[in-house]
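Recap quiz, item 2
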Amino acid sequence: MRTLALAAAALGLALSALPAAAQETPPLPRVFWSFEGPFGTIDQAAAQRGYQVYKQVCSACHSMTQFHFRDLAGIGYTPGQIAAIAASVRVPGPPNAQGQSSPVPGKPADAFPSPFPTEAAAEAVFNGAVPPDQSLMANAFEGGPTYIYAILNGFRNPPPGVTVPPGRYYNIYFSGNLIAMPPPLHDGAVTYADGTPATVPQMAHDVATFLYFVANPHADQRKRIGVHVVLFLVFVTGLTYALKRKVWSDVEH
Amino acid sequence: MAELGLQENEFKNPVVHWIDARLPVFTAMHKEYRQFPTPKNFNYFWNFGALATVNLAIMIVTGIFLAMNYNPSTAGAFDSVERIMRDVNWGWMIRYLHVVGATLFFVTIYVHIFRGLYYGSYKKPREMIWMLGVVLLLLLMATAFMGYVLPWGQMSFWGATVITNLFGAIPVVGHGIVTWLWGGFAVANPTLNRFYSLHYLLPFIIVGFLVLHIMALHTVGSNNPLGIDVKGPQDTLPFHPYYTVKDSVGVCVYLIVFAILVFFIPHQPLLMDPNNSIQANPLQTPSDIVPEWYFLPFYAILRSVPNKLGGVVLLFGSIFVLFFLPWLDTSPVRSCRFRPIMRWLWVLFVIDVFVLGYVGANRPVGIFILLGRIATVWYYIHMLILLPLIGKLERPLPLPESISKSVLGGGALPSAAVARPMEKA
């Protein structure tokens, strides 16, 4: 089994490595994010819509193992909503005396369950390519959420002369252009609770916002504290410099 | 008053007096950090030793707290770091402080080194300070390298694989050494375990060498921007309060920079490579394996030689040559302020190191191959040919008579005085 998994992984690697140097990718599009800059904060409405996209689309294949239901509080869900969301999902339960575990309704302290029991199971389904975990995806690529947005919008018909092998899809932003992920979004793929029209760019932007939050759950708090820390340090620097001037005032230098 | 076997001291506080008579720590602190005569003409570049010391303290303190929550196993390392980032109280801040601290440690150390190069701080009688400094640099590099492996991301794993494989270039015993370093036949759990152990140990060895570095400094006294010897008490100030307060100004400014990086741009790729947000995977090589920015000039030197062993020799040689700097530089004048040729060569050398860093960050194709080779050759030409040669050929500018004369706008000595060996006042 292990050998099989290894062989499958090696095959997948070889498949994805073959056309690696095929084409250069265009520069990433310019996208505005609410969390840009020192005072930017995560747009909670967008992140909640993004969570809906994640739940209804991405989570079918991608795991998000580092993220817990309770973390949803960071994008404005109330404890009651979080408990309801968790309870609606089945997570692996504690093992019984025989070591068998059966699914139980989730609690806020549970991590998001993975769609596949093991990596090998995912490899078997996807021809060797494991859908990457989404916990840190927004930090794991140059461009971060913009890269995610670009990939989700980057599916095209292959230009003439490019053969796309079965199980691969043509994406202009993916290195080598041949990605194992089928186009996950189409207009109206989800029906937003807040009535926002679910176009592909809209959903891509929302889910990238959500994934930025998932990768950086403390980003808003971090910047808020940072403003205070820097202001305090500027004040202390002023005092220290004044003290230095006073101490050195009797020295010719 | 003096009783048999007890140290005499002037402290009024009876407890301090009692302790100091038996363990003269207060006398030592008073002598080394209050009275210590320090040249009065330091500029702000003389802050950077103190900044590096503060940085070391920050790294040790944050590191101790990280270690409380870190799991040094290939199965658990990546997840335990994420646990620190998400669930440990203030864990994200402690880790970002440690990450940014690694970068700023090298910033302060590199400024400190280039300051020493410009003002000739490595020359007699300060050779020992300099050589201990080179040891500190090597220890810092080893500590940083092993620390970078611990989060067990893609770049951790592949960086460790590339760097440890360098030792495989050693003839005959190379492969044996690599296996010994790994504790197996690949970078794996034993490697991570020993790197964790050593990463915790080395900072305290750094503290030890730092104490020696400062002892040597306090034996011969500080250099200064004029590079001339202290001629008497009129040239110096007591370390406290004059330089404690001046260093404090530097520390405050440095902490502002630190805070901006930690709180606003901790994921800047120079601070954290995006690939390290992906768990290590021995079956998947990242498209580019790039070391941290502070190793890029050395990485460029390594890659500029087509032969692996040659590259490794030049890489390590570029640091080891620093040990011989006090004897390679033949000029009797320390400060480049009075060295009309060397000051421009110094500028060129700084540019050369930046070029090497830039080359190291790019794939070795096209123009970068040539640029890397030119910059590598220039690095060695500067160290091995120009420093000895220019010292003999150059005609230095007239040196000021003393620090206080220079400070008060006093005239310079006739240039004939330059050739005199520098005596201690």
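DSSP finds 16 helices and two strands in chain B.
The interface with chain A takes residues 40-41, 79, 82, 85-86, 92-93, 96, 237, 241-242, 245-246, 248-249, 252-253, 255-256, 259-260, 262-264, 266-267, 269, 272, 274-275, 277-279, 283-284, 287, 407-408 of chain B (CB under 8 Å).
End of item.
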